[in-house]
Specification:
Elements lengths: L3 E5 L1 H12 L3 E10 L4 E8 L20 H13 L6 E9 L7 H19 L11 E8 L5 E7 L8 E2 L1 E5 L7 E16 L7 H17 L2 E4 L26 E8 L10 E24 L6 H31 L9 E4 L2 E6 L6 E6 L5 H12 L9 E2 L17 H7 L4 E6 L17 E7 L1
Parallel strand pairs: 1-3, 1-8, 4-5, 9-11
Antiparallel strand pairs: 2-3, 2-4, 5-6, 6-7, 9-12, 10-11, 12-17, 12-18, 13-17, 14-15, 14-16
């Protein structure tokens, strides 16, 4: 028996509107949540057209589909999804002449998108996790809808029939988990690493931190709950209410400070050329469907949002630095860069909110443009919610000679990225004389 996709009813009108404008074909992404029991699609987003795409190459076939452009779009959209949501599939709307080639094109796109998204992840999917993704084909003339699924874990997977069922107010009352996580990550930069290895160093450092998050204890409304317990157990579930509203739970994250006596502590000595410190607090959120969700599913979604939001911000910052400063900048002393703030934006007719990231000097209008381009969604300024208040996080004083004005500016930063390019890292005052040569990186096996 194939999978069943329960789809937000508003998507039907959205796809219908797209089909009336199709001359040859249009592609897009399906956003939703999958679980062992059911899969939910809450939004469909067309692929933004490229400026140079006015000239159609070989219009008689689907070979002109720009696979790289679609996978890049999927990566950008994935950054804007809170925990619990993911790119769950791809759709294509074609004219009747191209319908015959649609499934082959869809299959290729689904595996390309999944490969692109997997590369960026710092977490691994669970063994029992659903690995099937939806492939939706629509004929612009007949409006015929054909839905199939592919197992993205199996490169040789063939199409399986799937049901596509519209449902009103599907995500009007989903459950949300909120938490704020304090971050203090030290990442040494090896002297043998060249400038272009900066991203690799950061990813390695974040991988170690992500393992800590995976092993953390999560308190939901002050309680530790059994993994297999129902998340909404003991809470009243709203019935017959089609108004969009979310039930929120406050979550506290307890990270392990030290290993037990069974773990052997070790230390390594590495020659370093500098270090990166990530400090501050990040606001995280995850959503889960209201059909008897398990605690394990909800906590897993929140863990992934914690890991994704920090990783995504680092990516965004370094993309910005490369654009503005160039990839080959040398001989810079200690620098301070504030990572972009997180903000949330509601989805019409849904209790779910999508997110985005904004640098301090970036105008709100640019955020609005990004939502139109990436998610084909207009956003009102008053609907944009800034999740993190830049005045609430105190930053530890730095050891360099920083004047009062600079220090005051730094204490207003929510998330601080310190790039220390001086030789060595000060471990403690007692070993400061050796700091120009060695950095001690303590860790546990």
């Amino acid at each position: 028996m194939g999978r069943t996709y329960f789809v937000e009813e508003a998507i039907s009108q959205y796809l219908s509107n797209l089909s009336t404008k199709v001359q040859l074909y249009v592609t897009g992404l399906l956003i939703g949540q999958c679980s062992v029991q059911k899969d939910y699609i809450i939004q469909a987003v067309r692929t933004p057209p490229k400026e140079e795409q006015k000239e159609v190459i070989n219009p008689s076939k689907l070979e002109s589909i720009d696979e790289e452009w679609i996978t890049t779009h999927a990566s950008q959209v994935s950054r804007m999804l809170p925990g619990g949501l993911l790119v769950l599939g791809v759709f294509i709307i074609t004219c009747p002449e191209l319908s015959k080639d649609s499934q082959n094109a869809l299959r290729k796109l689904i595996f390309s998108v999944e490969k692109s998204l997997t590369k960026r992840r710092l977490w691994k999917p669970a063994e029992e996790e659903v690995s099937e993704r939806a492939a939706l084909q629509i004929c612009s003339a007949t409006k015929k809808v054909v839905c199939r699924s592919y197992d993205v874990q199996d490169p040789k997977s063939s199409a399986k029939p799937a049901d596509w069922k519209y449902q009103s107010a599907l995500s009007a009352s989903w459950f949300a988990l909120d938490c704020a996580v304090n971050v203090n990550i030290h990442i040494p930069l090896l002297a043998t690493s060249s400038n272009h290895d900066l991203e690799k160093n950061i990813k390695n450092g974040l991988n170690r931190w992500a393992k800590q998050i995976e092993d953390s204890v999560f308190l939901i409304n002050g309680q530790v709950k059994d993994d297999d317990a129902e998340l909404l157990e003991g809470q009243k579930k709203s019935r017959g209410n089609t108004q969009s509203s979310s039930q929120f739970s406050d979550v506290k994250v307890l990270t392990q400070l030290s290993q037990g006596s069974s773990h052997r502590s070790t230390a390594t000595v590495q020659v370093c050329s500098g270090s990166i410190n990530l400090k501050g607090a990040v606001k995280c959120r995850a959503y889960t469907h209201n059909n008897k969700p398990k605690v394990k599913e909800a906590i897993q979604a929140l863990k992934r949002d914690i890991i994704n939001t920090l990783s995504d911000r680092c990516e965004i910052l370094f993309e910005d630095l490369i654009i503005n400063e160039g990839p080959h900048k040398k001989d810079f002393e200690r620098e301070y860069h504030v990572l972009p703030q997180r903000l949330f934006v509601p989805v019409a007719g849904s209790s779910v909110m999508l997110s985005d990231y904004r640098f301090g000097e970036e105008a709100i209008g640019e955020v609005q443009e990004r939502f139109v381009e990436m998610l084909d969604q207009s956003v009102q300024v008053e609907d944009i919610q800034i999740a993190e208040d830049i005045n609430t996080v105190g930053i530890c004083p730095v050891t360099d000679n920083v004047d009062g004005t600079q220090q005051k500016q730094l204490t207003k930063a929510t998330l601080l990225l310190k790039l220390q390019q001086n030789m060595g890292v000060v471990i403690a005052a007692a070993v400061a004389v050796f700091a120009s040569v060695f950095s001690f990186n303590y860790f546990s096996d």
